[in-house]
Amino acid sequence: MKHSAFIRTASLAAIFALLSACTIFHPPPPYLPSRGGIMPGQTITVQGEQNIYAIAQAHNVSMRDLIVLNNLQPPFTVTPGQSLVLPAGGSSFAGSMPVPTPSPLEPVQQSNLAPITPPAVSSQALEPVTQPQGATSEPLVLAPAQQPPQKVATTVAPQQQAAPAAAAPRLRKTLRHPAR
Fold first, then answer.
1. Which of 41, 62, 80, 99 has its CA 20 to 30 A from that of 93?
2. CA–CA gap between residue 41 and residue 84 (Å, rounded)
């Protein structure tokens, strides 16, 4: 009897742990403001491959207002033929800012300034550079005299010749790559 009560308690604890773990991995729902400040406008039908961004751009409305007004949930997808209500008067953000009006352009006034000319280049003859008093014309450092290259003879002892041959199979094993 005690054994079955322990198994029942352990299985209930395991089920509780699994169910509580499921809620940990789900992200919280996104915060979306209330629909209170958004006035509904005309209704449109989604055409072809449109998405929320394209619809908002085409009708000059805020994506946020379009999502909130139509109660769309992440990932905020729409399907062809779906009806969406656009915010009245465009975006709530764009409606609060006045549209800038371009100012009239005034003609550019010309002035009678003299053209810029480069400074005159002196045509005086340059004097040769002379050595300071006490200086010599000898080089400061003498380079070593070049000698012809010498031939150097090398000999290899018989014991040293056998060692590379024995190491060659080992070297080949390390350089092999497996076929992929």
1. 80
2. 10
